[in-house]
Give the backbone structure.
Amino acid sequence: MYDKIFPPKKMVLPSGKVVLEKRSRTPLILLILIAATVLSVNFTGFSLPLLFTRIDKFFSLIGDMIPPKWSYMSALWNALFATLQMSLLGSVVGAVLAVPFAVLASSNIIRNKTVVAVFKIILSLLRTLPTLVTALIATFIFGLGPMAGVVAILLFTLSYVGKLLYEQIENAEMGSFEAMEAAGMTRVQAFRYAIMPQVFPGYLSTSLFCFEGNVRYAAILGYVGAGGVGLLINENLGWRDYPRVGMIILALIVTVYLIEAVSEHFRKRLI
Amino acid sequence: MIEFINVEKTYPNGTAALKNINLKIEQGEFVAVIGLSGAGKSTLIRCINRMHDITGGQLNVDDVDVSKLRGKQIRKFRRRIGMIFQSFNLVTRMSVIKNVLVSFVPDLPAWRKLTGFFTKEQKIKALEALDKVGILDKAYVRVDQLSGGQQQRVALARTLAQSPDIILADEPIASLDPVTAKMVMDDFKRINRELNISVIMNIHHVEIALEYADRIIGIRQGEIVFDGESGKVTRDILNDIYGGRTDEWKSSAEETPAHVR
Amino acid sequence: MTEVEKQLHASPRNYRYIAVVTLLVLVLFGWSLLVVNFRDVNAGGFKIALNILKGIVTPDPDLLFNVTKQSVLYLLAETVAIAFLGTIVGAVLSVPLAFLAASNLVPKPVSWLTRLLLIVIRTIPALVYGLIFIRVSGLGPFAGVLTIGLTSIGMLAKLYVDAIEELDTKVLESMTSIGCTTFEKIRYGIFPQLLSIFLSVTIYRFDMNMREASILGLVGAGGIGAPLIFAMNSYKWHQVGSLLIGLVVLILIIELISNKLRAKLVKG
């Protein structure tokens, strides 16, 4: 369609041959991007001058967090553990539940097109809801505390791992699956022996990666009252006790770093 | 004309890559350099456009002493020499024609260099080069969608766009299947004949070397052990070049059985 | 021993390793179960869930469709704007950081330090940034843009660094043989390779930022979050319904567009 408005350029070679070169789409893309930027700046009140004059506040706040209040650490352990428990439980149960969902959403395993479509939509919807929103709703249903956080993380993990899993299942090599069905195995058995070995390392790797991210999310969930470190962050920011906030962040950084290191180690072995 | 006079190249740790090289290659010759892996074929070729430096002797290309060139002069010097690599060395995410246009980049004024706007004449020259290797119809296709043989021809077109006097080729057909390899060698031969460009090629495929090249240079352990017409190469000469390791240039040796561990 | 028996003895013995790891995981899982408690689940909870569902199927049409400052459409547009600008800010900041963190471009100490900095930036929860930036730029969407900018750096820089470290440097060899200067090699050899990957990663991040931007309202940084929490706290389920529907529809649309764009970038 673009070619109808801007017809391709004609280039004639000395040998007489004619080549048509399509005009570059780049100018149009740049135009759209600039328009979007201008609109967004208007909508949000983005202002570079304001940023530059007030940016020192940002750094001074950060400065107040260092040095962190080491003594606060002992009070932190419970919340830290709660955060870890929350993310571990949510991730594990979510990853386990993801398997039946993913299988039911794979078009090459389930012949019924409506079933496949329904489950794909369910997974998509679950992924679209921001974790905080689900956590918020969960606090209304399950009450304040880590349980709500577990539910929110569970739903997110289910959708994330589930989507990647069914994509992998659909891309799996089907030859061995068909051979097993032909040899008289049921679909479930054929799935277990033909498809699962192919997708299992990827599944474990994705679940680990999701767990890594969930630990960081769990820290925030406390803000809506879903337990964990987030509540403490909120409190201390409210009291302007920045050294405590700094301590919390430090503890978080160390924890996340450790988890990521362990997770990377295992994920490398899986690939 | 390329002239090697008593050229030698020794690495700082003492290994001698090239010893006692004396060669004269006239404009328009088609030369194939053969020998064992690691004998020094690659080093020899890369000394010509100063991708490697020599440690002794003199190397002249059209009466220019290559080792005396500095900085900008080296770059200007290299414009006249095209190089083809075993792994094609193209930017796979770009289209074919953009890859060929890269050879014009050093000649662009600064503002064109920054924006990537090439002149119409340059685009036409690039398309002509593509036409000469027979892939004009693929001009706007992304390189990673082409086969190995087609990609090597794009590399060849890129070299032709430079209008070089000499083309150096480092194992150009090693990654290609036999049929495509023959097509690419035909291209080399045609370019050598029609445009009188010297072609100096590094190749371990002896039958193809003998079939296409006019002159064969055999290297063993950094020294030239044979330099003559391809018609004059006998089995004994080949044994000499490959040091009795006929398994190197025949089909690959059998593998000994091993317990899987 | 026969050949077959020899082969049997040569097979790799992974079982012990897998057993230990599985045991560890089970222990951790058991520990984490301690956090489960259904005590706080009251009967009221299920009623609320039902109400939310009812609210979703009978949304407040007035809120959904009018175009005043309070309406869903305006809030969604604001959310998109926050996500868009925030992604750009994040990308602009991430590019130099990524180059400083790439082990194939800078000496080891520099890359190690930069990676440490990136880990710190990544771990600070988004809400902390949000609350800090509110003090810098006041309540409202501007703070949201800055927050999203900083939180994007974590993922963007990591993926940019992956792209930089997987650069195909063989192309540079052929550019040297053509006689190109270093600048030319960067502009025509490295830049084209990186551009399409950077674009693809950035678009993916914009997709995710859409979700984050909607949450920021919870701290007063603009977007749909604040009205949502008000509506929930006031038990106005119809409004909750329309807000949720608007949000979900918007995110789905953006996801579709971003998937299409990224597929195009990969295939060219």
The domain at 28-53+71-80+164-261 of chain B is CATH 3.40.50.300 (Rossmann fold). The longest helix of chain B spans residues 178-195. The two ends of chain B are 55 Å apart (CA to CA).
